[in-house]
């Protein structure tokens, strides 16, 4: 019975995610369009791909995890789901699992498009994207958990997360170095996920920073997730 409830809540979360088709316009179709426009760039290595991968991961988690949980909570449907399955943690974990599946599907489709229309990607690149994107999705969600505890007016909150989203994308395009790179890696999910994908090419200092931040963010998220309120937070 418990397993059936887990499957049911997973299917509900998956249907909610797939119903929001507009999100796929800028989580998948937009990066495909942008990579096609920039197809004359040098794709001799996979470094050019990682910016697009990081964009796909963070935007998918932003909409599918952060925005979706907020909407469920503010509409009162979060309480309904908890009444059905009697487990807040299961609802949150099933949502993250749905994001893992969607991210993997989007990364796969993006890579297939690049292979067919721009340049051949090796099976190793496909495998690397598949394996690394699991951790990238979990880390991206972990970095956003703290926003679920922000309590303010609805309009102010919408402006806050919208501004953070746009600023994060803009800062990713800076290609920072030195201290600024370290700072943005810690604070900006787009930069963190990008650095995670290129960690094998990074300096020892940056590798240590990425590893430490990954462990810290995952630990903090593990501590905070059970404490997320089921009541409305936004006024």
From TrEMBL:
TM spans (from-to): 21-38, 50-70, 91-114, 126-150, 157-176, 196-225
Swiss-Prot/TrEMBL keywords: Membrane, Transmembrane, Transmembrane helix
Entry superkingdom: Bacteria
The name this protein goes by in its record: ABC-2 type transporter domain-containing protein
């Amino acid at each position: 019975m418990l397993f059936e409830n887990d499957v049911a809540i997973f299917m509900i979360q998956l249907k909610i995610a797939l119903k929001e088709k507009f999100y796929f316009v800028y989580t998948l179709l937009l990066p495909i369009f942008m990579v096609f426009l920039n197809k004359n760039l040098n794709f001799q290595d996979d470094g050019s791909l990682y910016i697009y991968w990081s964009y796909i991961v963070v935007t998918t988690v932003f909409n599918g995890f952060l925005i979706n949980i907020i909407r469920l909570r503010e509409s009162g449907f979060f309480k309904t789901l908890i009444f059905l399955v009697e487990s807040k943690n299961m609802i949150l974990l099933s949502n993250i699992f749905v994001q893992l599946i969607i991210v993997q599907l989007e990364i796969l489709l993006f890579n297939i498009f690049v292979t067919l229309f721009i340049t051949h990607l090796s099976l190793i690149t496909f495998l690397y994207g598949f394996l690394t994107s699991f951790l990238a999705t979990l880390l991206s969600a972990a970095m956003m958990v703290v926003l679920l505890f922000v309590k303010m007016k609805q309009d102010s909150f919408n402006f806050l997360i919208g501004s953070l989203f746009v600023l994060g994308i803009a800062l990713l395009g800076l290609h920072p170095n030195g201290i600024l790179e370290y700072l943005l890696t810690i604070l900006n999910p787009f930069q963190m996920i990008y650095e995670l994908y290129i960690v094998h090419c990074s300096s020892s200092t940056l590798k240590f920073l990425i590893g430490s931040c990954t462990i810290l963010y995952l630990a903090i998220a593990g501590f905070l997730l059970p404490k997320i309120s089921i009541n409305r937070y936004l006024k």
